[in-house]
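Exam revision sheet. Question 4 asks you to relate a sequence to its structure. Input first:
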Amino acid sequence: MQERTYILQTQFLLRSLTLPNDALLTCLLPHIRRSGSHSCWYKLSKSPLWAQCLPHPEQLDKRTLKKIQLQFRQDNLNQARSSRNSILLSQCRPTISLDPILWLPMTRTERNRCIRWRLGWLPGGKLELCPRHPTQIFTKQHAISCLDMHHRLQMPETVQDPLSFLLNRLPTRILCSSHSASPWFIRWLVICTILYELDYLFHDKDQPPPPFQPGQRFLDWLPSSLH
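Answer key, structure tokens:
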């Protein structure tokens, strides 16, 4: 929300510099841009995003401003990901983009499970004991080992969160080659099955029945994306 505030403030300041010469605000600019004016315009100009638009903000066009804003957001994301307490964020995509789990074809339940895993809500909330290991707390790290995610997803043990690792590599656009699409026919089926089992265990139910056509919508979309 703070980033959005800075962006709106910057857009306002930039528009104020491109008003017609006979506009009242244009006439006031030489005065309100001074530090001694204590004006709202001067206070807004102290934002970190506006500082990146200097020293000649009047010469900025919309495309350049958009690039500056994107770089500003990316820098903030990098800083947040490097924080010691940003465990969940550090497992997400490292670039500013729309996460594919929000638009790729899948059922509502499958999308819900992906999002809950991202947010740390699956497993999450009140700490419970694992139905399969009654002496172990059912945390995210325990779920990774309990469901044997590294082996099932064919990922090395050096990858801390294999499920998030693969979710970060979901296609962000329509695939153009069978070479890039073929691994997902296996990966996505396993991912949906693991999330299904995880959701089942989270509700204190052991030995879930086999899921019915897990990830089928995404699998049906893959061949069509190659045309």
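Marking note for examiners. The two ends are 40 Å apart (CA to CA).
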